[in-house]
Amino acid sequence: MEPRRQFHQDLETLQQDLLRMGALVEESIYKAVRALTDQDPKLAEEVLEGDDQIDRMEIEIETRSLRLIALQQPMAGDLRILGTVLKAVTDLERMADHSVDIAKVALRVNRQPWVKPLIDIPRMANIVQGMVRDGLNAYIRRDVQMAETLATRDDEVDGLYGQIFRELLVLMLSTPTSVEQATQLLMVAQFLERIGDHATNIGEWVIYMVDGVRRDLNV
To answer: Which residues are in the PhoU domain (predicted)?
Structure first.
């Protein structure tokens, strides 16, 4: 096969693998939050077990990306695509790590009665899952406008995190017996907020890939 044709075929395969990794990460976030809200230790264990596969995919995609850069010396748009892949896999892997963190909290608080109804944490989770999905869709479609919408939703996630922080702080001050669980729930909210930041990072890299400019959406 002609070298450039082979390069573009390898590049297409690489991007498809990135999307498969993204789907696994989105599923991991969903399962981790469900494990928490439904107090389902089996789902939490599935998240922990699935993290190894995501880690392996990150290493494999990074290795193949670097090999293409070294051997093919791509220019301009192709180089930006590979740079975006390298950055995106790192953000996806860190999202998966935070899913593991949430799953571990789910195991720690399993069977405990809730100190408060879980309302805003599932709302945060729904938003960040949508952000991950749309960040990847923006990548597929090379859609700058879709990437830019992540900034608004990241602000919404930050607002929910602030609300959860205040409510749990008041609860801990008024009900000392709630401190241990409330601290765990606050950690979950923080992990979700960080996942939102990583999803927004992917949006920034999509903009860079398409337009060749760096934009900070986390402002």
So the answer is: 18-105, 121-206
